Amino acid sequence: MNQIRNIVILTGAGVSAESGIDTFRDGGGLWEKHRVEDVATPEAFARDPELVLRFYDMRREAIQTRQPNAAHHALARLDAEWRGELLIVTQNVDDLHERAGASRVLHMHGEHLNAWCTACDVRSPWTGPLLDRPPCPECGEAALRPDVVWFGEMPYGMEEIFAALRDADLFVSIGTSGAVYPAAGFVRNARDLGAATLELNLEPSQGTGWFDEARHGPATEVVPAWVDELLARQ
Ligand code: BJW
Protein backbone atom coordinates (compact mmCIF):
# COMPACT_ATOMS: atom_id res chain seq x y z
CA MET A 1 0.00 0.00 0.00
CA ASN A 2 1.07 3.57 -0.61
CA GLN A 3 1.45 6.15 2.14
CA ILE A 4 -1.76 6.17 4.18
CA ARG A 5 -2.97 9.22 6.00
CA ASN A 6 -6.77 9.33 5.86
CA ILE A 7 -8.84 6.28 6.75
CA VAL A 8 -12.55 5.49 6.57
CA ILE A 9 -13.68 2.36 8.43
CA LEU A 10 -17.14 0.88 7.87
CA THR A 11 -18.34 -1.50 10.56
CA GLY A 12 -21.32 -3.85 10.65
CA ALA A 13 -22.97 -6.38 12.91
CA GLY A 14 -20.01 -8.79 12.68
CA VAL A 15 -17.86 -6.47 14.78
CA SER A 16 -20.31 -6.82 17.70
CA ALA A 17 -21.09 -10.53 17.18
CA GLU A 18 -18.47 -11.69 19.65
CA SER A 19 -19.95 -9.33 22.25
CA GLY A 20 -23.12 -11.44 22.06
CA ILE A 21 -25.17 -9.15 19.82
CA ASP A 22 -26.96 -11.04 17.04
CA THR A 23 -26.14 -10.25 13.44
CA PHE A 24 -28.96 -9.86 10.91
CA ARG A 25 -28.27 -12.39 8.22
CA ASP A 26 -26.17 -15.13 9.83
CA GLY A 27 -27.79 -18.39 10.91
CA GLY A 28 -31.08 -17.56 9.21
CA GLY A 29 -31.11 -13.90 10.24
CA LEU A 30 -34.68 -14.22 11.37
CA TRP A 31 -36.55 -12.68 14.26
CA GLU A 32 -39.98 -14.05 15.16
CA LYS A 33 -40.13 -15.61 11.68
CA HIS A 34 -39.77 -12.25 9.94
CA ARG A 35 -36.94 -11.22 7.67
CA VAL A 36 -35.23 -8.03 8.87
CA GLU A 37 -36.39 -6.44 5.62
CA ASP A 38 -39.99 -7.11 6.73
CA VAL A 39 -39.57 -5.74 10.26
CA ALA A 40 -37.22 -2.80 9.85
CA THR A 41 -39.47 -0.67 7.67
CA PRO A 42 -41.79 2.31 8.30
CA GLU A 43 -44.57 0.18 6.78
CA ALA A 44 -44.04 -2.57 9.36
CA PHE A 45 -44.19 0.04 12.14
CA ALA A 46 -47.44 1.47 10.78
CA ARG A 47 -48.93 -2.01 10.33
CA ASP A 48 -47.94 -3.51 13.70
CA PRO A 49 -46.25 -0.97 16.00
CA GLU A 50 -46.36 -3.29 19.04
CA LEU A 51 -44.38 -5.99 17.21
CA VAL A 52 -41.75 -3.52 16.06
CA LEU A 53 -41.49 -1.70 19.42
CA ARG A 54 -41.17 -5.03 21.26
CA PHE A 55 -38.35 -6.02 18.88
CA TYR A 56 -36.45 -2.81 19.60
CA ASP A 57 -37.22 -2.77 23.35
CA MET A 58 -35.75 -6.26 23.62
CA ARG A 59 -32.60 -5.30 21.71
CA ARG A 60 -32.22 -1.95 23.55
CA GLU A 61 -32.32 -3.81 26.86
CA ALA A 62 -29.89 -6.50 25.65
CA ILE A 63 -27.17 -4.15 24.35
CA GLN A 64 -26.91 -2.47 27.73
CA THR A 65 -25.74 -5.79 29.19
CA ARG A 66 -23.10 -6.40 26.47
CA GLN A 67 -19.48 -5.28 26.56
CA PRO A 68 -17.10 -4.09 23.84
CA ASN A 69 -14.79 -6.82 22.52
CA ALA A 70 -11.17 -6.84 21.36
CA ALA A 71 -12.16 -5.51 17.92
CA HIS A 72 -13.93 -2.45 19.38
CA HIS A 73 -10.94 -1.84 21.68
CA ALA A 74 -8.46 -2.12 18.82
CA LEU A 75 -10.43 0.39 16.73
CA ALA A 76 -10.60 2.75 19.73
CA ARG A 77 -6.81 2.49 20.06
CA LEU A 78 -6.44 3.26 16.36
CA ASP A 79 -8.77 6.25 16.78
CA ALA A 80 -6.66 7.52 19.69
CA GLU A 81 -3.25 6.94 18.12
CA TRP A 82 -3.76 7.54 14.38
CA ARG A 83 -2.31 10.93 13.45
CA GLY A 84 -4.22 11.32 10.19
CA GLU A 85 -7.93 11.69 9.57
CA LEU A 86 -10.06 8.75 10.62
CA LEU A 87 -13.81 8.13 10.58
CA ILE A 88 -15.54 5.02 11.90
CA VAL A 89 -18.84 4.82 10.02
CA THR A 90 -20.89 2.21 11.81
CA GLN A 91 -24.09 0.59 10.63
CA ASN A 92 -24.52 -0.70 14.16
CA VAL A 93 -27.06 0.85 16.47
CA ASP A 94 -25.25 -0.33 19.61
CA ASP A 95 -22.84 1.95 21.48
CA LEU A 96 -19.91 -0.47 21.80
CA HIS A 97 -17.46 1.61 19.73
CA GLU A 98 -18.04 4.55 22.08
CA ARG A 99 -17.91 2.40 25.21
CA ALA A 100 -14.53 1.08 24.02
CA GLY A 101 -13.36 4.71 23.87
CA ALA A 102 -13.67 5.62 20.17
CA SER A 103 -14.79 9.18 19.51
CA ARG A 104 -14.69 9.61 15.72
CA VAL A 105 -17.84 7.48 15.21
CA LEU A 106 -20.79 8.15 12.88
CA HIS A 107 -23.94 6.02 13.32
CA MET A 108 -25.36 5.94 9.81
CA HIS A 109 -28.30 3.66 10.81
CA GLY A 110 -29.08 5.51 14.07
CA GLU A 111 -28.74 4.48 17.70
CA HIS A 112 -30.69 2.17 20.01
CA LEU A 113 -30.12 4.51 22.92
CA ASN A 114 -32.00 7.40 21.31
CA ALA A 115 -35.73 7.90 20.80
CA TRP A 116 -37.07 10.12 18.03
CA CYS A 117 -40.27 12.07 18.52
CA THR A 118 -42.29 12.08 15.31
CA ALA A 119 -44.40 14.98 16.69
CA CYS A 120 -41.66 17.53 17.48
CA ASP A 121 -38.72 15.90 15.59
CA VAL A 122 -36.44 15.98 18.66
CA ARG A 123 -34.14 13.05 19.47
CA SER A 124 -33.65 12.25 23.15
CA PRO A 125 -31.36 9.82 24.95
CA TRP A 126 -33.44 6.74 25.81
CA THR A 127 -32.58 3.56 27.73
CA GLY A 128 -36.02 2.21 28.71
CA PRO A 129 -38.89 0.64 26.77
CA LEU A 130 -41.04 2.41 24.17
CA LEU A 131 -43.83 -0.20 24.01
CA ASP A 132 -45.87 1.55 26.69
CA ARG A 133 -45.84 4.75 24.58
CA PRO A 134 -44.15 7.11 27.06
CA PRO A 135 -44.41 10.88 26.49
CA CYS A 136 -41.66 12.71 24.61
CA PRO A 137 -39.44 14.50 27.18
CA GLU A 138 -39.49 17.55 24.90
CA CYS A 139 -43.13 18.02 23.83
CA GLY A 140 -45.08 15.49 25.91
CA GLU A 141 -46.68 13.73 22.91
CA ALA A 142 -46.77 9.92 22.94
CA ALA A 143 -45.06 9.83 19.55
CA LEU A 144 -41.64 8.30 20.18
CA ARG A 145 -40.10 5.72 17.85
CA PRO A 146 -36.69 4.06 17.84
CA ASP A 147 -34.10 6.41 16.35
CA VAL A 148 -32.94 3.87 13.79
CA VAL A 149 -32.90 3.98 10.00
CA TRP A 150 -35.32 1.56 8.40
CA PHE A 151 -35.43 0.40 4.78
CA GLY A 152 -36.61 3.22 2.56
CA GLU A 153 -35.35 5.90 4.96
CA MET A 154 -32.30 8.07 4.39
CA PRO A 155 -29.24 7.01 6.41
CA TYR A 156 -27.65 9.66 8.62
CA GLY A 157 -24.49 11.60 7.85
CA MET A 158 -24.26 10.89 4.11
CA GLU A 159 -22.59 14.23 3.33
CA GLU A 160 -19.97 13.72 6.01
CA ILE A 161 -19.38 10.13 4.87
CA PHE A 162 -18.87 11.11 1.22
CA ALA A 163 -16.57 13.97 2.23
CA ALA A 164 -14.45 11.48 4.21
CA LEU A 165 -14.49 8.97 1.32
CA ARG A 166 -13.30 11.69 -1.06
CA ASP A 167 -10.23 12.29 1.13
CA ALA A 168 -9.60 8.66 2.07
CA ASP A 169 -6.38 6.83 1.22
CA LEU A 170 -7.72 3.63 2.75
CA PHE A 171 -11.26 2.25 3.11
CA VAL A 172 -11.72 -0.73 5.43
CA SER A 173 -14.94 -2.71 5.77
CA ILE A 174 -15.31 -4.81 8.92
CA GLY A 175 -18.00 -7.38 9.78
CA THR A 176 -20.65 -6.48 7.25
CA SER A 177 -22.33 -8.72 4.67
CA GLY A 178 -22.45 -6.07 1.95
CA ALA A 179 -26.18 -6.68 1.53
CA VAL A 180 -27.52 -3.23 2.43
CA TYR A 181 -27.08 -0.03 0.46
CA PRO A 182 -25.78 2.64 0.42
CA ALA A 183 -23.15 1.20 2.83
CA ALA A 184 -22.53 -1.79 0.53
CA GLY A 185 -21.58 0.64 -2.24
CA PHE A 186 -18.94 2.53 -0.27
CA VAL A 187 -16.18 0.17 -1.41
CA ARG A 188 -16.87 1.07 -5.05
CA ASN A 189 -17.18 4.77 -4.18
CA ALA A 190 -13.85 4.61 -2.33
CA ARG A 191 -12.13 2.75 -5.19
CA ASP A 192 -13.43 5.23 -7.75
CA LEU A 193 -12.09 8.04 -5.57
CA GLY A 194 -8.65 6.44 -5.45
CA ALA A 195 -8.52 4.75 -2.03
CA ALA A 196 -7.03 1.35 -1.32
CA THR A 197 -9.68 -1.05 0.00
CA LEU A 198 -9.54 -3.82 2.58
CA GLU A 199 -12.18 -6.25 3.85
CA LEU A 200 -11.97 -7.82 7.32
CA ASN A 201 -14.82 -10.30 7.78
CA LEU A 202 -15.53 -13.77 9.05
CA GLU A 203 -16.08 -14.95 5.47
CA PRO A 204 -16.14 -13.34 2.03
CA SER A 205 -18.92 -10.73 1.93
CA GLN A 206 -21.24 -10.18 -1.04
CA GLY A 207 -18.91 -7.42 -2.22
CA THR A 208 -15.63 -9.16 -1.51
CA GLY A 209 -14.57 -9.01 -5.17
CA TRP A 210 -14.46 -5.22 -5.02
CA PHE A 211 -11.73 -5.11 -2.38
CA ASP A 212 -8.00 -4.94 -3.14
CA GLU A 213 -7.37 -7.24 -0.18
CA ALA A 214 -9.50 -9.40 2.11
CA ARG A 215 -8.60 -11.07 5.40
CA HIS A 216 -11.08 -13.53 6.81
CA GLY A 217 -11.51 -14.57 10.43
CA PRO A 218 -13.23 -13.47 13.65
CA ALA A 219 -13.16 -9.72 14.21
CA THR A 220 -11.55 -10.14 17.63
CA GLU A 221 -8.53 -11.69 15.88
CA VAL A 222 -8.20 -9.99 12.50
CA VAL A 223 -8.97 -6.43 13.64
CA PRO A 224 -6.38 -6.18 16.48
CA ALA A 225 -3.75 -7.78 14.20
CA TRP A 226 -4.47 -5.27 11.43
CA VAL A 227 -4.46 -2.30 13.84
CA ASP A 228 -1.10 -3.38 15.30
CA GLU A 229 0.32 -3.64 11.77
CA LEU A 230 -0.99 -0.25 10.72
CA LEU A 231 0.17 1.60 13.84
CA ALA A 232 3.62 0.01 13.56
CA ARG A 233 3.95 1.54 10.06
CA GLN A 234 2.70 5.01 11.03
C1 BJW B 1 -18.34 -11.59 11.50
C2 BJW B 1 -18.40 -12.22 12.70
C3 BJW B 1 -17.27 -12.13 13.49
C4 BJW B 1 -20.26 -12.58 11.81
N1 BJW B 1 -16.22 -11.45 13.04
N2 BJW B 1 -17.34 -10.93 11.00
C5 BJW B 1 -31.71 -2.56 -4.66
C6 BJW B 1 -30.40 -2.23 -4.89
C7 BJW B 1 -29.75 -1.31 -4.10
C8 BJW B 1 -30.39 -0.73 -3.03
C9 BJW B 1 -31.68 -1.06 -2.79
C10 BJW B 1 -32.35 -1.95 -3.59
N3 BJW B 1 -33.62 -2.09 -3.11
C11 BJW B 1 -33.74 -1.31 -2.02
C12 BJW B 1 -32.58 -0.67 -1.81
C13 BJW B 1 -32.24 0.25 -0.71
C14 BJW B 1 -32.19 -0.43 0.62
C15 BJW B 1 -31.38 -1.73 0.53
O1 BJW B 1 -30.17 -1.74 0.62
N4 BJW B 1 -32.05 -2.86 0.40
C16 BJW B 1 -31.36 -4.16 0.29
C17 BJW B 1 -32.25 -5.23 0.90
C18 BJW B 1 -31.05 -4.40 -1.17
N5 BJW B 1 -31.53 0.50 1.50
C19 BJW B 1 -32.22 1.43 2.15
O2 BJW B 1 -33.44 1.51 2.11
C20 BJW B 1 -31.41 2.44 2.94
N6 BJW B 1 -31.81 3.76 2.57
C21 BJW B 1 -31.64 4.23 1.35
O3 BJW B 1 -31.16 3.57 0.43
O4 BJW B 1 -32.05 5.54 1.20
C22 BJW B 1 -31.96 6.12 -0.10
C23 BJW B 1 -30.61 6.66 -0.45
C24 BJW B 1 -30.37 7.08 -1.72
C25 BJW B 1 -29.13 7.57 -2.07
C26 BJW B 1 -28.12 7.66 -1.14
C27 BJW B 1 -28.37 7.28 0.13
C28 BJW B 1 -29.60 6.76 0.47
C29 BJW B 1 -31.64 2.28 4.44
C30 BJW B 1 -31.07 1.00 4.95
C31 BJW B 1 -31.43 0.84 6.44
C32 BJW B 1 -30.90 -0.48 7.00
N7 BJW B 1 -31.42 -0.63 8.32
C33 BJW B 1 -31.02 -1.80 9.11
C34 BJW B 1 -31.82 -1.81 10.42
C35 BJW B 1 -31.28 -0.73 11.38
C36 BJW B 1 -31.96 -0.77 12.70
C37 BJW B 1 -31.77 -2.08 13.41
O5 BJW B 1 -30.66 -2.40 13.89
O6 BJW B 1 -32.75 -2.82 13.52
O7 BJW B 1 -29.61 -1.75 9.38
S1 BJW B 1 -31.22 -3.36 8.24
C38 BJW B 1 -29.79 -4.11 8.93
O8 BJW B 1 -28.82 -4.40 7.87
C39 BJW B 1 -29.13 -3.05 9.83
C40 BJW B 1 -27.68 -3.22 9.51
O9 BJW B 1 -26.97 -2.05 9.85
C41 BJW B 1 -27.69 -3.53 8.04
C42 BJW B 1 -26.45 -4.20 7.54
O10 BJW B 1 -26.27 -5.43 8.15
P1 BJW B 1 -24.80 -5.94 8.50
O11 BJW B 1 -24.22 -5.09 9.55
O12 BJW B 1 -24.02 -6.11 7.26
O13 BJW B 1 -25.12 -7.36 9.19
P2 BJW B 1 -25.31 -8.78 8.48
O14 BJW B 1 -25.96 -9.66 9.48
O15 BJW B 1 -25.94 -8.66 7.16
O16 BJW B 1 -23.81 -9.28 8.23
C43 BJW B 1 -22.92 -9.58 9.29
C44 BJW B 1 -21.58 -9.93 8.69
O17 BJW B 1 -20.67 -10.12 9.76
C45 BJW B 1 -21.59 -11.24 7.87
O18 BJW B 1 -20.87 -11.03 6.65
C46 BJW B 1 -20.83 -12.22 8.75
O19 BJW B 1 -20.04 -13.16 8.02
C47 BJW B 1 -19.95 -11.31 9.54
N8 BJW B 1 -19.60 -11.84 10.85
N9 BJW B 1 -19.67 -12.83 12.82
C48 BJW B 1 -16.28 -10.88 11.81
N10 BJW B 1 -17.22 -12.74 14.69
UniProtKB/TrEMBL annotation:
Binding site for Zn(2+): 117, 120, 136, 139
Cofactor mode of binding and number, as noted: Binds 1 zinc ion per subunit.
GO molecular function terms listed in the Swiss-Prot or TrEMBL record: histone deacetylase activity, NAD-dependent; NAD+ binding; protein-malonyllysine demalonylase activity; protein-succinyllysine desuccinylase activity; zinc ion binding
Amino acids binding substrate: 56, 59
The protein's enzyme class: transferase
InterPro entries listed in its UniProt record: DHS-like_NAD/FAD-binding_dom, NAD-dep_sirtuin_deacylases, Sirtuin, Sirtuin_cat_small_dom_sf, Sirtuin_class_III, Ssirtuin_cat_dom
Subcellular localization, as worded in the UniProt entry: Cytoplasm
Key word Cytoplasm present: yes
Amino acids binding NAD(+): 12-31, 91-94, 175-177, 201-203, 219
Pfam families: SIR2 (PF02146)
Active site positions: 109
Entry's Gene Ontology cellular component terms: cytoplasm
Sequence ranges assigned to domain Deacetylase sirtuin-type in this UniProt record: 1-233
Top-level division of the source organism's lineage: Bacteria
This protein's UniProt keywords: Cytoplasm, Metal-binding, NAD, Transferase, Zinc
Alphabetized Gene3D superfamilies for the sequence: SIR2/SIRT2 'Small Domain (3.30.1600.10), TPP-binding domain (3.40.50.1220)
Comment block on domains: 2 residues (Tyr-56 and Arg-59) present in a large hydrophobic pocket are probably involved in substrate specificity. They are important for desuccinylation activity, but dispensable for deacetylation activity.
Role according to the record: NAD-dependent lysine deacetylase and desuccinylase that specifically removes acetyl and succinyl groups on target proteins. Modulates the activities of several proteins which are inactive in their acylated form.
Protein name according to UniProt: NAD-dependent protein deacylase
The organism of origin for this protein: Novosphingobium mathurense
